């Protein structure tokens, strides 16, 4: 019955919103498809199913359903899938990008904001562009120097850089067309102004729209629209008010001054930290409504009582905001997490569908943000239609059936109670940046779901901002795990990862595919009734979209957190994905992240076809090997060293000094053996070019030495344990 509801017709609106209704055999498409690289790119994206061999925009279509009608590879033959080609990348951090494919050319953005143009049939490099992001920018962002993708428009490719630029390149040659700084030099942006850009730009009616991140440190969120041809700023929309309720000379002035400001305390840390609300991922243009939807992030600081004195809903944190693409004018908003204090961003993928609601077809937004609830919202008006938790949640008992407002668990409001809160979902959410997909053939939304708890505890002594570090308003001594096996076992038991196949009409789970742990890659659904997904343990899988059966598996040699794409090259279907373990989960959780499966970073693009014959080269998967440390350390300095490490270092090098397989494990660093060597790296920035900034303006010589003493202690405490864990044939840590 549900399947029939999605097959009634193929109106223009249906084409725009719901993707292809019926599967077709596409072997002959390459010969008859229109050239998507010529003429109006917007029209080509609207009519993406007329040239299904391309992947022209971040979610393939404006609806961002990540569904491709291609079906040469299907349930009957996917078991024969083989590696067709691979291209090794020149970075060894996390890869989160969605490659674009236009006219047989793949445009892949990689870590450190680099762009590669590859022959989509062979993987041959056609050109490369390195914007040369300075290494000291790495510590301005919370969660790795990743890049999630590019945009294509009228013969040019566009992408953001981690240091805040937006760049347009000639798609054929890779030559620079224009470059702009997206971060204004003036304005009320908070004292920290810790901005980065790692999300994919979107293009609506000739305007390139880009957001930014930085709320963990201190930032005020906004998006900017630039003319696609010239790079000239067209308009800007701020997502939280000016702290003095003054105009910013922006499209958002009226709604912020007259509506949003009243939902904030006139004082509080937000007035100095910026308030947050960064739009670091989802920006969607909907040609059906002619609106742009913004997914707005968390508050800065996280702590609601410190941020806004525990007052107001804090518009537009944790919201979807609809604006006009031509002017940036506000139209409507829906706030999913009022009074956010859990880092429950709404930046996760926004998707539009046509769904039968109460006997009528409605054009809707479906959304699975961090807070664990699946929302169905009218795309034109923002009216709440339905909502249900798609993962286990303990912070709310449900949603108000009329308004969609959360029904809070009073104990979850830890900033108001003053008591610690073990939250599920935690700050990484029930769903993060990993893309979900929809299949019109099954009527199901496939969500890369996860469970990663978090202990929320108020910062002792009130809010104090630290330069060059996270400023959450939390006790950094408590956000990590103690090195006690019972505490670790209890936490690990709560770590989960899976695909949930969600029925958006019934608001219930149809089936699930369990994984070993969280932090798995995004999903693409195809006309061959397949789901493709890479996993944190380095495996790439194809699942049956109708029941979740595992039909294909490939060892990709490194954790996969990016979403796959599928395309045609010379009439043949390929499936490709960026490989490379990274992001905040292994960065901050460190050794605990091993529970998803041991992996180290080997970054590359891999592509599969039914007749592939490539093989990956052998790799060293042992990672950073333990080195026996000096036996002596100053016990009196290690407690403060732990606090300083958790404040300044843990977000990259792992909770409690244990790394997660991406960046160096400092327990085994030669630098910790000598005070001067350690200070040269941490204080003076000897490794700045590699992303290790200098901290002499943030910490004293004594504080840096305290960190060294703490690391010496941790190295001694864990050395034998790490050696014993590697006593096996592979020489890698046993789980």
TrEMBL record:
Heme c binds at residues 649, 652-653, 692. Residues 636-715 form the Cytochrome c domain. Pyrroloquinoline quinone binds at residues 96, 148, 278, 370, 584. InterPro entries: Cyt_c-like_dom, Cyt_c-like_dom_sf, PQQ_b-propeller_rpt, PQQ_MeOH/EtOH_DH, PQQ_rpt_dom, Quinoprotein_ADH-like_sf, Quinoprotein_DH_CS. Residues 1-33 form the signal peptide. Binds 1 PQQ group per subunit. Transmembrane segments: none annotated. It holds the Pfam family PQQ. The active site is at residue 343. Its cofactor is pyrroloquinoline quinone; Ca(2+); heme c. Keywords: Calcium, Disulfide bond, Heme, Iron, Metal-binding, Oxidoreductase, PQQ, Signal. The keyword Protein biosynthesis does not apply. Disulfide bonds join 142-143. Ca(2+) binds at residues 216, 298, 343. SUPFAM superfamilies: Cytochrome c (SSF46626), Quinoprotein alcohol dehydrogenase-like (SSF50998). SMART domains: PQQ. Its EC number is 1.1.2.-. One of its GO terms (cellular component) is membrane. One of its GO terms (molecular function) is oxidoreductase activity, acting on CH-OH group of donors. Belongs to the bacterial PQQ dehydrogenase family. PANTHER family: QUINOPROTEIN ALCOHOL DEHYDROGENASE (CYTOCHROME C) (PTHR32303). This is PQQ-dependent dehydrogenase, methanol/ethanol family.
